């Protein structure tokens, strides 16, 4: 069973060390001033220089080859996860590390299964080293059905995903199944955790928000694709605060009316603004941005908690948000987008 330190344990010194380490890491997060300067910069090299010359974490880029920035971003994120992993060993934050890092296991499984069925060799650049399972072990399990080196829970979900894909031969089925199975796995893990009530409420709420927004975005995508209600119902994640049946109930209504039927939910504005943007621009960019901002703003409680799991959740969420914002800006500069167009895509900041 996983165990967290609480104010009642005799391990407060280790817990305090972990929180202190996180506070130090927070000083390396992007602030709005640096972000705005990068957006307004004249080109990608100028944007990179602003980032590298700031007093943030050790971002390092090859200015002679600025277009090759992905490796640098991946190294920075991996470095942050390595630190979190070490903190987890000290303070037994191990469940939280699994909650976030396993997202990359699921990402890698998606890439490898699609590679198998679409007969395409996967690029090393597409898979992530951050996950909890070695990519080669996952590759052996998926390509050669050698499961002895991966956890039983992952063997189950790989087999289930392959089975569901083979029914319809639709690559999007891989995403639907794995998104659902990921959250089911996380909630099963939560049942094994000893945690004080306030932290449990925060953690469950954080995960439920992610589930709710995942369900909403996937349902809107399915609606746009013309999928039937029965198809969507099967792959909704049931553990969210916003009950899956509420989405199913309105699914056949015009997309433009969804926000009216969800007016009393926390997500009404996200749906209204996101759908309006889609209808004008044929893009879900605004919906995804608003969803990311909602999650980030919820996690900001971690800045004000001195003893708990909230600071770690806040930092991981913030760091991934920073990497996403940098990627948006650099990609925009590379594609000669105007500062206004780039700013339209950029998410909020944690600090």
Compact summary:
It contains 16 helices and two strands. It is an all-alpha fold and 351 residues long.
Mind explaining what this structure looks like?
The protein has 351 residues and is mainly alpha-helical. The protein has a domain at 94-193. It is built from 16 helices and 2 strands. It has a two-stranded parallel ribbon. The longest helix has 29 residues, at 197-225. The protein is globular.
From N to C, what is the helix and strand string?
Answer: EHHHHHHHHEHHHHHHHH
**What is the 3D form?**
globular
Helix content: 55-70%
Low-confidence stretches: 1-10
Number of helical elements:
16
Rg calc:
21 Å
Structural class assignment: mainly alpha
Sequence of strands across the biggest β-sheet = 1-2
Main sheet, how many strands, which sense, barrel? 2 strands, parallel
Mean pLDDT: 88
State the separation between the terminal residues, measured CA to CA: 34 Å
Total DSSP E strands: 2
- Fraction in beta strands: under 5%
Produce the secondary structure layout.
Elements: E1 2-3, H1 12-26, H2 32-40, H3 44-52, H4 70-91, H5 94-117, H6 135-144, H7 152-168, H8 171-190, E2 193-194, H9 197-225, H10 229-235, H11 244-250, H12 258-261, H13 268-281, H14 285-299, H15 310-334, H16 339-345
Helix pairs in contact: 1-4, 2-3, 4-5, 4-15, 5-6, 5-8, 7-8, 8-9, 9-14, 13-14, 14-15, 15-16
């Amino acid at each position: 069973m996983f165990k967290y330190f609480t104010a009642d344990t005799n391990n407060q010194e280790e817990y305090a060390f972990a929180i202190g380490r996180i506070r130090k890491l927070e000083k390396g997060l992007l602030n709005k001033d640096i972000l705005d300067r990068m957006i307004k910069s004249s080109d990608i090299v100028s944007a990179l220089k602003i980032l590298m010359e700031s007093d943030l974490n050790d971002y390092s880029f090859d200015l002679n080859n600025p277009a090759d920035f992905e490796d640098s971003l991946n190294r920075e994120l991996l470095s942050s996860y390595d630190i979190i992993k070490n903190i987890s060993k000290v303070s037994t934050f191990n469940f939280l590390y699994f909650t976030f890092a396993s997202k990359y296991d699921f990402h890698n499984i998606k890439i490898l299964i699609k590679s198998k069925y679409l007969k395409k060799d996967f690029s090393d650049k597409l898979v992530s080293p951050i996950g909890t399972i070695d990519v080669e072990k996952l590759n052996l399990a998926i390509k050669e059905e050698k499961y002895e080196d991966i956890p039983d829970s992952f063997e189950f979900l790989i087999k289930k995903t392959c089975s569901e894909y083979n029914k319809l031969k639709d690559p999007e089925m891989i995403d639907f199944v794995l998104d659902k199975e990921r959250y089911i796995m996380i909630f099963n893990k939560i049942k094994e955790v000893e945690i004080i009530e306030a932290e449990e409420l925060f953690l469950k709420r954080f995960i439920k928000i992610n589930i709710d927004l995942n369900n909403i975005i996937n349902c809107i995508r399915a609606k746009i694709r013309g999928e039937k209600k029965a198809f969507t119902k099967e792959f909704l994640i049931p553990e969210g605060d916003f009950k899956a049946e509420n989405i199913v109930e309105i699914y056949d209504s015009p997309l433009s009316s969804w926000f009216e039927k969800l007016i009393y939910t926390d997500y009404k504005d996200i749906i209204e603004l996101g759908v309006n943007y889609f209808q004008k621009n044929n893009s879900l960019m605004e919906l995804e941005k608003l969803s990311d901002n909602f999650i980030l703003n919820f996690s900001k409680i971690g800045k004000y908690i001195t003893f708990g799991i909230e600071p770690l959740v806040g930092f991981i969420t913030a760091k991934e948000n920073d990497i996403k914002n940098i990627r948006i800006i650099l990609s925009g500069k590379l594609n000669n987008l105007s500062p206004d167009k780039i700013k339209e895509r950029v998410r909020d900041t944690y600090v």
